[in-house]
Amino acid sequence: MTPAARVQSAIELLDEIIVAARDKGGSADRVAAAFFAARRYAGSKDRRAIRDLAWRAIRAFGERPENGRAAMVALAGTDQELAALFDGSAYGPKAIDPSEPKASGDIVPEWVKPLFSELVTGDEFPALLERAPLDIRVNRLVACPAQVQAQFPEAQQMEGCTDGLRLPTGFSIETEPVYQSGAVEVQDFGSQLIAELCEAKPGMTVLDLCAGAGGKTLALASHMAGEGRLIAADTSRDRLTQLPPRAVRAKAEFIETRLLNPGKELATLDDLSEACDIVLIDAPCSGSGTWRRNPETRWRLEQRDLQRLVTEQARLLDIAAQLVKPGGRLVYAVCSLFACEGRDQADGFLERAKGFEPDLGLVRAGRRDGAGILLTPAHDGSDGFYMARLHKLC
Ligand SMILES: C[S@@+](CC[C@H](N)C(=O)[O-])C[C@H]1O[C@@H](n2cnc3c(N)ncnc32)[C@H](O)[C@@H]1O
């Protein structure tokens, strides 16, 4: 493909991503996979170039653009080489008309700016959209960190995180034998810290209430050395069914899974009433802390979705409170930097559920925000997370 034809393809890919974001369709990654599957003529270099162009546009504009061309024309306004490719050549984009619509605005949508925790000031915004590094977690059920580090001399040890290593961006870990053996998992430093904040130990009863496909459950299994009870629960059958094969690879077959009925979660968790040493709530949220991985989620989020999420988060906290045993702990986390999903949830819970007190544990990163800790890409080099540990008094 010519460079101009790649620009036109990026415009068409963006059109599909914009419609999917507006209509709550598939993620940008899924849209791109289907787009390229239908265009076998695009070689691997073409695909990479088209994707890079589309993702540059997604990162550049916080508000959802009218269409792909408006986004790419606006990008061309800051890049002369790109602008020169709007040359009307065969398969390329037609020349730019100075009066045609252009995407505008900042990298962060205006309406969400007031929602951030006060700790996230405007100078932190660019880091929210920078490419994320590759963090891995050593699975102690298979190997110890020193063994893995010996195989990757380029890996940096992650300060404040016992089993974390950071590899250079672009490193392909999935093809390494150490990955295939189950000795490592790809997991952001912030996610690893949430699991560490739980301080799960062998022999405990631990419930991961929003386990999804089990990213944090597997970290908890490693901390528990495969001993005790670890229950992974979620309302999504699709996500939860991804866990058992991952658990086999990680030698963590002791994990139990429970599919919950939305709105009737306690019916399936009845036997765990006041029985858990730890309940982790990795709650559904806006994902505003993970824009660097999924930048197009800025184009999906709407005020009414956020309101629904906030209500659900508070409900999950109240459910979890009933499952923690006296003396046990509840860990609440969201990959969000909005105060309404993080600090306000933890503080609100402490006000309404008597008998809990904040307990920050030994986390050696982030900044104190209300009863918990806020991690941000700019300050901590991790995805953005809020996490709070709440101790149930005896
Ligand atoms: C942030 S994701 C969890 C990610 C997962 N813990 C991990 O580390 O990969 C939030 C999860 O909450 C689940 N969820 C949403 N509502 C729920 C509910 N009422 N009860 C339990 N899980 C719920 C979603 O299906 C989703 O998998």
Major sheet attributes? 9 strands, mixed
Q: Roughly what is the average pLDDT, rounded to an integer?
A: 95
The coarse silhouette is globular
- Taken in chain order, the helices and strands follow as HHHHHHEHEEHEHEHEHHEHEHEHEEEHE
Strand content: 15-25%
What name does the CATH topology of the largest domain carry? Rossmann fold
Structurally, how many domains make up the residues?
A: 3
CATH superfamily name of the largest domain? Answer: Vaccinia Virus protein VP39
Distinct helical segment count: 16
CATH architecture tag of the largest domain: 3-Layer(aba) Sandwich
Q: Return the structural class.
A: alpha/beta
CATH class identity of the largest domain: Alpha Beta
Compute the separation of the termini in Å.
68 Å
Give the helix proportion (percent range).
25-40%
Report the strand count. 13
Low-confidence stretches: none
Bound molecules: S-adenosylmethionine
What is the radius of gyration?
22 Å
Descriptors:
394 residues; alpha/beta; Alpha-Beta Plaits; Rossmann fold; nine-stranded mixed β-sheet; four-stranded antiparallel β-sheet; 16 helices; binds S-adenosylmethionine
In summary, what is this structure?
Helix content is 37%, strand content 16%. It is globular.
Explain what you see.
The chain has 394 residues and is an alpha/beta fold. The chain is 37% helix and 16% strand. Helix 1 packs across helix 4 (68-76), helix 3 crosses helix 4 and helix 9 crosses helix 10 (215-223). Strands 5, 6, 7, 8, 9, 10, 11, 12 and 13 form a nine-stranded mixed beta sheet that branches. A four-stranded antiparallel beta sheet has the order 2-3-1-4. The protein has helices at residues 3-22, 28-37, 44-60, 68-76, 80-84, 125-128, 145-151, 177-180, 189-198, 215-223, 237-240, 243-249, 265-269, 303-321, 343-352, 377-380; strands at 134-138, 156-157, 164-167, 184-186, 205-208, 229-234, 255-259, 276-282, 324-334, 356-358, 367-369, 372-375, 385-392. Strand 8, helix 14 and strand 9 form a beta-alpha-beta unit. The chain contains 16 helices and 13 strands. The chain has three domains: 3-105; 134-186, Alpha-Beta Plaits (2-Layer Sandwich); 189-392, 3-Layer(aba) Sandwich (Rossmann fold). The mean pLDDT is 95. It is globular, with a radius of gyration of 22 Å. The structure holds S-adenosylmethionine (SAM). S-adenosylmethionine is lined by residues 209-213, 215-216, 233-236, 239, 260, 262, 265, 282, 284, 312, 316. Its EC number is 2.1.1.-. The active site is at 335 (nucleophile). Residues 117-393 form the SAM-dependent MTase RsmB/NOP-type domain. This is RsmB/NOP family class I SAM-dependent RNA methyltransferase. InterPro entries: MeTrfase_RsmB-F_NOP2_cat (IPR049560), MeTrfase_RsmB-F_NOP2_dom (IPR001678), RCMT (IPR023267), SAM-dependent_MTases_sf (IPR029063).
